[in-house]
Give the backbone structure.
Amino acid sequence: MVEQHTPRSLIVTFYGAYGRAFEGPVPVSALIRLLGAAGVDAPSVRSSVSRLKRRGFLLPGRAADGSAAYGLSEEARQLLDDGDRRIYGSPQLSDEWLVAVFSVPEQERHKRHLLRSRLARLGFGAVAPGVWIAPARLYEETAHTLERLHLTPYVELFRGAHLGFAPTPEAVARWWDLAALAKQHEEFLDLHEPVLRGLRSDPAEPSPQEAYRGYLLALDTWRRLPYADPGLPRELLPAGWPGDRAADVFAELHERLRGLGAAFVEP
């Protein structure tokens, strides 16, 4: 597998990891320097920033010295705050499920596609047409997403237990493609576990720039996994599930690299 880091994805990852700590909007010159350290050239930074501005993720502003700068919109901040709980948190496992039931008129079928794609991106599994399921702890983030996209008139949310009739592990294996999820965890491990082994074996601490680059790339890969895999109870997953090891690898990279990389981010 060849790891793909698009400029737009890296910019979102940067704002999630470091950009919110800036006082005011991030100067364009800083974005060019910081994304350049991850291999993104200046024209790609500028064009990707423009696309994120059109999407409402970034808002134009001015830095303290009057130069062009970009800050996060309120919706983007909410999105990143929700993401923090997924990316850095440990799932609080329970037996309760969140069920989303939706119905969209045929003349608005584009919203049906949007609903399905967003529920899938939140980590929901498909039970039946118009019926999707996820761990109950995802309620708040799901509600924020549906409200942000103005999709709440089409959806009802329920919380409860799975009562039958198939055993829950069998049902979960139908609702989610567990083999595909396991493969994503394994690919993350293939790419980033060797990086961690190198850090463990080298007595010298990486430079702030090396730490920043390594952390940004690891986070850019990792942050998708807690959405694809919603954190299902371990007793419902196959033996030898690689998600725990992948989470441990990211957690150690986070501990070793994020703070050190912040020294490179500072002007």
Summary: The first strand starts at residue 26 and ends at 27. The mean pLDDT is 91. The two ends are 35 Å apart (CA to CA). The chain has eleven helices and seven strands.
